[in-house]
Write a structure and sequence with these properties.
Pfam families: p450 (PF00067). The chain is built from 15 helices and four strands. The chain is globular. It is mostly helical. Strand 1 (14-18) and strand 2 form a beta hairpin. The chain folds into two domains: 83-246, no CATH class; 248-282, no CATH class. The chain has helices at residues 2-9, 28-34, 44-48, 63-77, 79-85, 92-100, 106-109, 123-137, 144-154, 156-189, 199-203, 215-246, 248-259, 271-274, 278-281, and strands at residues 14-18, 21-24, 113-116, 119-122. Helices cover 61% and strands 6% of the residues. A two-stranded antiparallel ribbon has the order 1-2. The two termini are 31 Å apart. The chain binds protoporphyrin IX containing FE.
């Protein structure tokens, strides 16, 4: 299906997939659809990805609710804060660190196994399997839950895929719970550790007043951060690296530009020096 769509889009920039479903393949539409002040609401299909649980920033359809959630995390996403995080922005390790100050150590250990209730869970496998199976039927709109139930009833394979998705939810709840515990303990003892993660934005507003979010909403927002922050960045980096390998001229040009941004004896170029490099930014 994805391949067919890709092939058709080479000729047609806009395709109608269903009476109310359009697919765009023109780069200009990104700003029109997702840009600031866009009149496009989120798709009702988004609500289905909440899986009956609490919606998070990405799948909340109601505009006011969405705006409330955006305000909550706007400080965390502000460029000046992300600059602090940039050097780590690669993988699940990075996003767990950025969102929760959690050092998963996946890169160091070369494995993304995580222990939950004495059980070994493969973080990426559970995330991918759940998303893959739900992406197959999410386009069915109102039929989503029915098809999910049916697939669980009749296919042991699909049942296990849904089960893996559920395990990812469990891991998220565990990590959010651990971070919440730390946050509450710090508030109690007034011994604040110097952290610069996103989590406090969910607990208190800018004035330090408690937001009083329900635990399910904290879990949902943590889930979208860990989910959307990991694969998107990894895919973008993988593609950039692929094209650089295929195009040695571009690789050389970029390498020269970045090398010149290093100070003498520097191991890591500072963000201040790399943020305006024209070829890197192009
Ligand atoms: C190259 C990397 C990335 C790409 C291509 C990407 C792509 C997208 C797209 C297309 C959307 C809009 C989805 C929709 O409304 O239907 C989105 C929303 C979102 N992304 Fe990303 N993303 C990337 C990195 C990240 C990172 C690193 C994070 C977290 C730290 C993140 C968190 C979010 C959140 C929370 C939303 C929902 C925003 C809202 O609805 O207001 N994304 N992303």
């Amino acid at each position: 299906m994805e391949e067919q769509l890709h092939a058709l889009h080479k000729t047609y920039p806009i395709l109608r997939l269903a009476p109310y479903t359009l697919s765009f393949a023109d780069i200009r539409t990104i700003k029109d659809i997702y840009g600031h002040g866009s009149p496009c609401p989120k798709d009702d299909v988004d609500a289905l990805t909440a899986g009956g649980g609490h919606p998070h920033m990405l799948n909340v359809v109601n505009r006011e609710e969405h705006a409330r959630k955006r305000r909550m995390l706007s400080n965390a996403f502000a460029a000046r804060n992300l600059q602090l995080f940039w050097s780590n922005l690669f993988t699940v390790d990075a996003i767990a660190d950025i969102a929760l100050s959690k050092r998963l150590g996946f890169l160091d250990s070369g494995s993304n196994d995580i222990i939950m209730d004495g059980q070994v869970i493969n973080f990426l496998d559970s995330l991918h399997r759940g998303n893959r199976v739900s992406s197959r039927i999410i386009g069915a709109g109102g039929w989503f839950y029915f098809l999910r139930g049916l697939s669980m009833m009749f296919s042991p394979y699909l049942r296990s895929q849904w089960g893996h998705g559920g395990k990812f939810g469990g891991v998220v709840r565990m990590l959010a719970g651990e971070r919440l515990e730390e946050q509450l303990q710090e508030q109690e003892t007034q011994e604040t550790k110097k952290r610069s993660d996103f989590f406090p934005c969910l607990i208190d507003d800018r004035n330090g007043d408690p937001r009083g979010l329900e635990r399910v909403e904290i879990d949902a927002e943590t889930s979208i951060l860990l989910d959307s922050g990991a694969d998107t960045t990894a895919t973008a980096l993988t593609n950039v690296i692929y094209y650089l390998i295929k195009n040695p001229q571009s690789q050389k040009k970029l390498r020269n530009e970045v090398s010149n941004a290093f100070s003498e004896n520097g191991i890591v170029a500072s963000y201040a020096k790399v943020k305006n490099l024209p070829y890197l930014k192009a």
